[in-house]
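Figure S7 source data.
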Amino acid sequence: MSEKIEWYKEFVNKNYKPKNNDVKVLFYYEAAKGMKVEDALGRIASESSSGTWTTLTNLPKLLPKTKAYAYNYSKNYTKLAYPRILFENGSVPCMMSGIGGNIFGMKAITNLRLIDAELPLDYVKGFKGPTYGKEVIKKIFKRKSGPITSVVPKPKVGYTAKEHAEVVAKAVWRGGMDCVKDDENLTSQKFNKFEERVKHMARVRDQVMKETGEVKDAFINTTAPTLKELERRVKLIHDYGFNYFMIDVVVSGFTAVGTASELAHDYKMAIHGHRAMHAMFARNPKHGMTMLFLAKLMRLIGVDQLHTGTVVGKLEGSKEEIMAMKDMLTKKEVGEITNLRMPQKWGKIKPVLPVSSGGLHPGILPEVFDIYGTTDIGIQCGGGSQGHPDGIEAGARAIMQSIEAYKQKISLKEYAETHNELKVALQKWGYLKPM
Ligand code: CAP
Ligand code: MG
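C-alpha cells for the predicted magnesium ion complex:
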C-alpha cells in the first residue's frame, strides 16, 4: 500500500485569497539544498499552524479552519495567511509560539526571517496598547513638543544607590534633563539594591524639582526574575511618585511586558521599553525577526516609548528600516513597503514615542532629529553626557544647548560661540559618529 507519508503540499496554495481576518505574515526564507520551494514553504506553513511532518489517522473537524497557506512566494520571500482562529485574544506569546516557533529550526530551510505581519483589527482590539504613548510629552512633561531627554549613569553599573542619585542624577537633572534612566543591566545588584535606588532617586528628584520648578522623572529598571517581583518593583516606583518605569522587554519576555502593561494602565504610568538582546535575533538580515516586528508587538502590548536606533550612533540599524519602524509606531495606519513592511491599521491603539540612543552626544543630535524628521522623540545619552570634560552637569547642559540650537535653526558651531558647555563638548567629540 503506497500510503501517503507527507501532507505539506496542502499548506501551499497560490490561489488562496487571504481573508480580511487572516494574519498575513511576510518571511524571507532560503530553502535547503535540494529542497523545492513548495516543499520548503509547505513545511513552514504546516509546522507554524496545525500540520506536522507526516499524515495522521485522525483529523479534527475543525482542521480546515486552522491551516495556514503560503499564498504568495518568490525565490526568497513569501507571505503566509494564518486563520484568526489560531490566535488567542490578547496573547502575543500564543501567536509567537506559532509564527516565531519551531519553523526557525526546520532542516527544510537554511535561513528564515520574520519580517513583519499584518494584524487584523479584530486581533488588534484584543490589546490595550500604551497608557499614554507619544502623549507622554504633554501628559507628563506638560510640553507641546519634544524631545524627552534622558541620561543613563555611566559606567553602566558600579555606583551605589546613593551615588547613582546624589552624584549622577542630581547633576543630570540640574543640567536640564527630563529623566535619568537605569542602564539595561542595572536591576538590584548588591551594590545598588532596587529599593535603595528608588528611595534615593525620589528624594533627589523632589529636591531638584523644588530648585528648578521643572518636572523630573526617571526610567528605573523593573526587569525582575519573576512576575511577582516585577509587580512589586513597579508598585514601589509608583508609591514613590514616579510617572515612568522601565523594563528590558526582550530579556523579560512577552508575558512580563503584558503584565507590565496591565500595571501601567492600573497605575496610570508610562513604560520605557529597552530592547537589550534584540540584536541577537534582529541583526542578521537572513535569519531571525526584525526590530520592526518586535516594535509592532511592543505597541500592541502597550509600551509607551521604545528604543528604535540612531543610524549615526554606535549600534546598527539602517535609516530605511528605522524610518519604516518609526512610521509604523507613530501613525494610525501605514502601507506596505515591499519586502520591508506589511500594511497595518491600529484602530484605537495609541502611537509610541521612538527613543534614539546609543553613542549619541551633542555634536550629532541635529543629525538624529533630521533623520527622524521631528524633535518629538526621546533622546538618550550616556557617555555622550558624562564624558564631558567639565563634568556631568555640564554634559547635560551641552545636550540641552544642542537641542536648543537645532530648534532655533542655528548651527552648533555658531551656538557654541555663546554656550561654553556645547563648545567644550564639540572640542572633545566634534561631529564624531562612534562605532
Ligand atoms: C546607551 C546605552 C543604551 C543603548 C541601547 C548603552 O549608552 O545605555 O543601552 O542606547 O541601544 O548601554 O549603550 P551610550 P539601543 O549613550 O553611552 O551609548 O538604543 O540601540 O537599543
Ligand atoms: Mg544601556
